[in-house]
Design goal:
Elements lengths: L11 E2 L26 H13 L8 E2 L13 E3 L4 E4 L6 H20 L7 E6 L5 E9 L4 H11 L7 E6 L9 H18 L1 E5 L5 H16 L8 E7 L18 E3 L18 E6 L7 H14 L2 E3 L5 E3 L2 E5 L6 H10 L4 E4 L4 H12 L4 H11 L9 H12 L5 E4 L8 H14 L9 H10 L2 H8 L12 H9 L3 H9 L4 H4 L2 H9 L6 H17 L22 H12 L8 E2 L9 E2 L6 H4 L6 H11 L3 H10 L3 H18 L3 H8 L3 H15 L1 H9 L10 H7 L3 H4 L2 H12 L8 H9 L31 H9 L19 H18 L1 H24 L12 H22 L7 H9 L2 H20 L5 H17 L1 H5 L5 H37 L6 H16 L22 H6 L11 H35 L2 H17 L9 H14 L15 H27 L2 H52 L28 H8 L11 H4 L6
Parallel strand pairs: 5-10, 6-11, 7-8, 7-14, 8-9, 9-11, 14-15, 15-16
Antiparallel strand pairs: 1-2, 3-4, 5-6, 12-13, 17-18
Helix pairs in contact: 1-2, 3-6, 4-5, 7-10, 8-9, 9-10, 12-13, 18-19, 21-22, 21-23, 23-24, 23-25, 23-27, 25-26, 25-45, 29-43, 33-34, 33-37, 36-37, 39-40, 39-42, 39-43, 46-47
Length: 1278
């Protein structure tokens, strides 16, 4: 291939070597241009033209397997034409070439070393403030594109969200305090909070110097290195003092520059508190080129777009702030207005700013009034030849009033960022009323989080917003955690049901912060999925990191896995598409290519966004989604469960604390309380209905998962549990009647026990409740089981109406309902458990026979069978449950209960004891194990007594005190070991018997605590004479006891005294104090804990068979037979109900209404709080002060008008006297004098400063009326 005719084929190289300073230019042609800054459009056009002309431009290698620099995918390659076609997913070929040329041109610039001496470099400011800045020296006709690229690409400045150009103020050597505060607290603070650039002249004099000091103060006070104020100075090169020092700047050697405070003159030092400088070389024949450069740069920046934290972007807003200003500013101001740049005028700052404010307040700016104001403000302008041009410029500027906004810091309390945003919105309003034209301002309000401005100036009814217009800003408000804006957008037309698709929901999870706990959990699930799939990542081109290598693109598959770890079965099926033809095979969102599925709308958008917000611990956002979504009680309990689990996993203390302080359990409690106070029956149904948003889980199931003890302590929940506990019997049935009926079943058919649902037994089946047109029908459905009673007759069966059949149904129904009630099951289990313990005691004490063949006896065999039935029941509870889960998970759930662990230990000990007692040489070991096992079985009684209202809370207190005992034993063991070992070493140093060493070192000191102190073995004075020895062999053989050592016996007595003092006085009283504290702390909450235990106990006995062990085996056999014949009966209908569709929807609506009532009460309480009342009072006082201030202004205006009228009267009198002395005569008579009550037109009442009135009176020293009096007051002409 020829060197100059080579195309871009496989393996060809492309280089821009022929252009040292860019296409179409050379250093000779543009000696002052910004050297080395590549203009992207020129490179791109040159690149394409080079392809067309088949030039050789070797600059890197492009091959058929070349990857896109943006996404990493292989570029499309045409084999037929041997050319690149571009990236199929993210760009066209032009866009791809732009990406290529951008990276390659940057490398060319680095190789060329564009850091020409004195052109671009760093400045080291020496002196009291040692800072460093960057500068570039450009000519006056340099393209603003190059300057902006240098600022953002080469110097790494983030694109701004706002650019504020400070105009004027160069003459202010001494600043007023309020003006200094405006710069310090207003402008710099607004720039810091909004990510703005401040453009000034960058010189150390006037207002720029004070602004630099404000930037310095904020930089010192800021704790974040990412949030800093960017102050950029654009100054003429010939106005810089000691500019020769900048010519020494090199690549790695910054220029040393010492700023000086110079008097007002022609040159000034650069301000050391500015970070970047653009130094413009002006052509002597073109003065003011720097101002033109500023205008062009601002125009170019205003056309650029910047992101604001989400997926959207907006055009960078530009605003000019006018402070004071000389008349020469007017030309620059007019050019800026020609570019539609808004201006914010600082009232009271003097100069041109005050002239414009005065004229805007008057409402008229005729030539004479403008001319006079100019002369009054600038007396030196009398001899200027440009005064007429200044007047015309002022009039042209005032004609664009929509671009002018006045801010008076002394009169207004608004923050400067608020004023800036209002000025931008005002400028937009005058140009259009279309929603699309306000979108950038709305994005800016979202970026600044100024929902008040959005409400008052954007969503004020002037613009008709469509839902599609707000989708982008809605996404960014969600991502950036702006709940107020989310509420505003929903109120103004965004329909979440139409807005939220699975794809958008997935994007929301992509935006999770990498430092958050949720990101770590999703990343863990993502890595597990990659391991399971075994997907190997294909590396991209050098220096490129595809999304998988940088920030993983999580899918809803990982989200569903994380939620399953938190909510278990309550989120079963979340984000899972199940085909109708194969329901057993689910398909999760785990592929990015499921575009059609990702475009589907979420079935429950409020729930999905609530979970997304809760997982990120965005409580305000989550509260809003919870308040707007359905099934409020269930959603609050789900949020409570998630936050409790995340607080346990969160490593950051502040985040964990905020998670624990979330009030979702209280929300669930309060909303249910509102429901219960409105309708008890519906509240009961609300607890047991299967929810739609939470995988058919009930509120009780979610409360159990969330460990919401306070929720279970609510009277409504306890009332439902009491109804379930008594079954079909009335809840006021006396225990004595129940016990009597238990031992005498014939009393069941008498009126001794009443059944609450007998009035509903005459129903004719479920078909009569289909319509649900009456409240009685609804109540019947809510309070009765869904399953038909097998004892109920079939509708229309004549045989069922006979007396015999009715009698038999009555007998069987009462029998069944009595024995199936959980309270009866509990009573039977308690009685039979006492019988079991009695039998166990009898066997251990009276009938524990030798091993076979002599034993075991009949009672012991009955005991074995009894324990066998207990084992069967434990197996049923662990593996044969109604929940749809695998065996391992069922076993894990079974073991989590402490009482189930106790049952397992008791059964295992029993099996071990029985196995040992059957063998001769382990017979006694078996008896020992069974004796210990009897203790375990007896302690199991504590669980049975937990249902008692008085004993239950005390059991919880004892359980908490046991923890205190363990801590006490730690302190006690320290003193016990220390004292025991010391006394053993002093008294019996020659005793080698290990058992006696432990007895004297540990056991005997423990007995000392309870008063058993053998002084004859400790005190030498009381030791009796004995036949002892120090021979270890005799001691071991037991011939004689060891002789006690009497040396230092006084030390033993002293140690005993100290030991008794510490243990009996100090530690025991410490234990009592710990018990007292625990009792006081737990006593207030024991009722809550007991009610939660009561729920677990009721659920346990509600699911148990009616017969107690050992007769429970009959129930087990019957269940097996029923399962073989038909579907086994479920006793869960009291705890889980599937309501008809119409009734279920009515219940959801009713719950939503009660939730809204609760939220309204919260809002009312919030506004009635002392804090809000103080705020309201303060606001009213501020309004009153503004009104009073307005009254004072009106008084001033009236006084001014009176002075003007008085002056007019004097002029008229003077004119009358002149005409009277004149010889001229008039043919008409003089007009009548008008009434003093004549009205004056409102349009004629124009406010004037008092100094203007004085000048019109002639108080300027001449004693004659001023210039243009009749022009100055328009109503005089009337």
């Amino acid at each position: 291939m020829a060197p100059n005719s080579v195309g871009i084929g496989p393996g060809d190289s492309l280089t821009f070597a022929s252009l040292p300073d860019g296409p179409g230019s050379s250093p000779e042609e543009k000696p002052s241009a910004l050297t080395g800054v590549v203009q992207l459009e020129e490179w791109r056009s040159f690149f394409i033209s080079a392809m067309q002309e088949r030039k050789d431009i070797p600059l890197g290698t492009l091959q058929p397997q070349t990857r896109c620099l943006r996404c990493g995918n292989v570029l499309q390659w045409s084999q037929e034409h041997s050319v690149l076609l571009g990236c199929p997913c993210c760009s066209t070929v032009d866009k791809t070439l732009e990406n290529v040329t951008r990276g390659l041109a940057r490398r060319v610039n680095q190789e060329k070393s564009h850091w020409a001496a004195g052109r671009v470099g760093d400045i080291d400011f020496t002196g009291s403030t040692k800072t460093r800045g960057k500068f570039m020296r450009v000519c006056s006709d340099t393209d603003p594109v190059l300057i902006y690229q240098m600022l953002t690409e080469e110097w790494g400045l983030a694109p701004p969200h706002l650019v504020v150009a400070l105009v004027g103020g160069d003459e202010l050597a001494q600043m007023k305090p309020w003006l200094r505060d405006t710069l310090r607290k207003g402008l710099v603070k607004a720039a810091q909070s909004t990510g703005a650039w401040i453009l000034t002249n960058g010189l150390r004099f006037g207002i720029t110097k004070h602004l630099g000091q404000a930037v310095r103060d904020h930089s010192l006070a800021s704790t974040s290195s990412k949030i800093r104020v960017v102050a950029i100075g654009i100054a003429p090169w010939n106005m810089i003092h000691n500019r020769e020092a900048l010519l020494t700047a090199k690549v790695d050697e910054p220029a040393a520059y010492k700023p000086h405070d110079l008097p007002h003159g022609s040159v000034y030092s650069l301000d050391s508190h500015h970070s970047h400088f653009v130094l413009v070389e002006e052509d002597p024949s073109r003065p003011g080129a720097t101002s033109e450069m500023r205008v062009k740069l601002l125009k170019h920046i205003s056309l650029q777009r910047t992101g604001y934290g989400g997926a959207g972007s907006f055009e960078i807003p530009v605003l000019c702030l006018l402070v004071h200003g000389e008349p020469k500013i007017l030309k620059r101001m007019y050019k800026g207005i020609g570019n539609s740049t808004p201006w914010l005028i600082l009232a009271g700052s003097g100069g041109v700013a005050d002239i414009l404010v005065t004229l805007m307040n008057r409402g008229c700016w005729d030539t004479d009034s403008v001319h006079e104001l100019l002369l009054d403000t600038f007396p030196n302008a009398h001899h200027s030849t440009d005064i007429s041009n200044w007047v015309k410029l002022i009039q042209k500027i005032l004609d664009h009033g929509h671009l002018l906004t006045v801010h008076d810091p002394e009169q207004e309390s608004s923050e400067l960022d608020t004023v800036i945003l209002k000025a931008l919105v005002k400028a937009c309003k005058s140009q259009s009323q279309e929603a699309q034209d306000f979108l950038d301002e709305l994005k800016l309000a979202v970026a600044w989080n100024r929902v008040d401005i959005a409400k008052s100036d954007i969503f004020n009814g002037d613009v008709e917003w469509k839902a599609c217009d707000l989708e982008e800003v809605m996404m960014d408000a969600l991502i950036n955690d702006k709940p107020d804006f989310v509420r505003l957008f929903v109120d103004n037309g965004v329909n979440l049901g139409e807005f939220l698709t699975y794809g958008r929901l997935q994007e929301l999870y992509w935006s999770v912060s990498e430092k958050s706990l949720l990101h770590n959990l999703l990343l863990k699930k993502y890595e597990e999925k990659q391991i399971l799939l075994g997907a190997a990542r294909t590396p991209g081109p050098p220096g490129h990191h595809p999304p998988e290598q940088g920030k993983p693109r999580f899918t809803l598959y990982e989200v569903a896995k994380v939620l399953k770890d938190f909510l278990h079965d309550s989120c079963k099926g979340f984000y899972q598409k199940i085909p109708t033809e194969k329901p057993a095979k689910g398909r999760l969102f785990h592929q990015q290519k499921n575009l059609a599925e990702l475009e589907e709308r979420c079935e429950h958008p409020w729930r999905d966004l609530f979970l997304w917000a809760v997982l990120q611990n965005r409580q305000q956002m989550a509260n809003y989604f919870w308040a707007m979504g359905p099934e409020a009680v269930a959603a609050a309990l789900a949020g409570c469960k998630i936050l409790k689990e995340m607080a346990r996993l969160e490593s950051e203390a502040e985040s964990a604390r905020s998670m624990k302080e979330a009030k979702y359990e209280q929300f669930a409690l309060d909303v249910f309380g509102e429901c219960y106070s409105n309708s008890e029956d519906r509240a009961y149904a609300l607890l047991v209905r299967r929810t739609h948003c939470w995988s058919k889980s009930t509120v009780l199931n979610l409360a159990t998962e969330a460990d919401a003890k306070s929720f279970f302590a609510h009277d409504g929940v306890q009332a439902l549990l009491t109804k379930i506990w008594w079954g079909a019997m009335t809840t006021d049935t006396a225990i004595s009647k129940l016990v009597v009926s238990f031992f005498c079943p014939a009393l069941i058919w008498t009126n001794l026990i009443k059944f609450s649902d007998e009035e509903l037994d005459n129903r004719n089946g479920r078909e009569q409740f289909v319509e649900q047109d009456s409240l009685d029908t609804e109540k019947a459905l809510l309070l009765t089981d869904d399953d038909d009673d097998p004892l109920d007759p079939a509708p229309g069966d004549p045989a069922a109406q006979s007396c015999a059949s009715v009698w038999w149904r009555f007998l069987l129904r009462r029998w069944r309902r009595f024995w199936s009630a959980p309270v009866t099951v509990f009573l039977g289990n308690v009685i039979m458990y006492f019988a079991f313990l009695f039998l166990f005691t009898y066997v251990l004490l009276l009938d524990f026979r030798p091993p076979p063949p002599a034993g075991p006896g009949a009672p012991e065999l009955i005991l074995y069978f009894w324990v066998f039935t207990l084992v069967l029941e434990e197996l049923r509870q662990s593996f044969f449950t109604d929940e749809e889960m695998n065996i391992l998970k069922k076993f894990k759930l079974y073991v989590e209960d402490n009482w189930n662990k106790c049952d397992m230990v008791a059964i295992l000990l029993f099996v071990a004891g029985v196995s040992c007692r059957m063998v001769d040489h382990t017979y006694e070991a078996g008896r020992t194990v069974l004796a210990i096992d009897f203790m375990v079985f007896t302690l199991r009684l504590i669980h049975i007594f937990a249902i008692h209202k008085q004993l239950g809370p005390k059991i919880i207190i004892v359980e908490r005190m046991m923890k205190d005992v363990f801590f006490f034993l730690f302190f006690l063991s320290v003193w016990l070991i220390a004292y025991g070992v010391a006394t053993q070493a002093l008294l019996h140093p020659n005793d080698p018997r290990i058992d006696w060493v432990f007895r004297r070192a540990l056991y005997r000191p423990y007995l000392h605590i309870f008063g058993q102190i053998p002084l004859e073995e400790i005190d030498a004075a009381r030791m009796p004479e004995m036949n002892c020895t120090n021979d270890s062999e005799e001691i071991i053989s037991g011939l004689r006891p060891p002789c006690p050592n009497v040396y230092a016996n006084w030390l033993v007595i002293l140690l005993l005294v100290i030991f008794l003092l510490v243990t009996n006085v100090l530690l025991l009283n410490l234990l009592i104090a710990m018990f007292s504290y625990t009792f006081q702390v737990v006593q207030g909450n024991t009722d809550i804990f007991w009610k939660f235990q009561r729920y677990n106990l009721i659920v346990e006995y509600h699911s148990r068979p009616a017969l107690a062990p050992p007769f429970i085996i009959i129930s087990h056999l019957s269940q097996i037979l029923f399962s073989l014949v038909k579907q086994p009966e479920s006793k869960q209908e009291h705890l889980e109900r599937e309501l008809p569709v119409g009734l279920d929807q009515r219940l959801i609506t009713w719950e939503t209404v009660q939730k809204e009532n609760y939220l309204a009460k919260l809002e009312r309480q919030h506004w009635e709080s002392s804090e809000e009342r103080l705020k309201s009072t303060s606001s009213k006082v501020q309004s009153l002060l503004r009104i009073v201030g307005g009254v004072k202004d009106q008084e001033k205006r009236l006084a001014s008008m009176e002075a003007q009228i008085r002056y007019c009267g004097e002029v008229l009198s003077w004119m009358a006297e002149c005409f009277a002395q004149s010889t001229l005569k008039c043919g008409k008579e003089a007009p009548n004098v008008p009434s003093s009550k004549a009205s004056i037109s409102n349009d004629a009442c124009q406010s004037q400063p008092e100094k203007d009135v004085k000048q019109e009176r002639g108080e300027d020293g001449t004693g004659h009326p001023g210039y243009g009096a009749n022009k100055k007051f328009p109503y005089i002409d009337e």
